[in-house]
User: What shape does this take?
Amino acid sequence: MTAHDHASSFMWGAAVVLVIAGLLVPQTLMMANQWERAVVLRLGRLKAIRGPGLFLIIPFVDTVATWLDQRIQTTEFNAEQALSKDTVPVNIDAIIFWQVHDPERAALEISDYRSAIARVAQTSLREMVGSSLLATLLSDRKQGDQMLRDDIGRKTAEWGVNVISVEIRDIGVPSALQDAMSRQAQAERERLARVALGQAELEVAQKFVEAAAVYASTPAALQLRAMNIIYETTKERGATILIPTAMIDSMNPGGIMALAAMGQTGPKAA
Assistant: This one.
């Protein structure tokens, strides 16, 4: 074999090696983003959780079974025509914020954790509605959010999923019940207004009783009050006041007439 044949064979061999390497490199060199984790199986058994960044696997021996996203995810769920503890049908919409914190469990313990989270959330929501009164659901949503978060989180923890928060977005009740609740709220507001008015009347009456006691024990205070009333009335020009004679006799006439004159003429300039 000549030198030319040796060189040709070497070139063909190198070309074959390069082609094989080009085919195997994409199956050997993998890259996971910052938020991704790769579950690597070797001959069907768990080898490692890889990522983020570049990592190598052995072609035909290692396989990436699944890619997991560790960013915060959201899932919407609802309960339609769910009966509350006081047998009122309600429609509730909610949203759950969750995150995969254990990729190994999420990959090995359950086949489809996304679907399982949605079903568990809906079941927990119906259980919470069935054990709560409608008034409690409407008035204390924060408590309902916390109950759902604890219940769903306890169930999903075995799958490596952490429930961050649950938020109830809307609670719908039948229109007939809405009208009844509106009338009840209006009646309650009217009751509170009447109670406040009665309380004010009671306080005014108590002050009058206290003032009467002071006037009864101090006649001079009653005279001063009467004189002040006359003065305030006569400040407006053209006002005519009719005072009973008995009232005039019980007070100091000179002082009263002086105040009346001041009210009619106004203060004089210095």
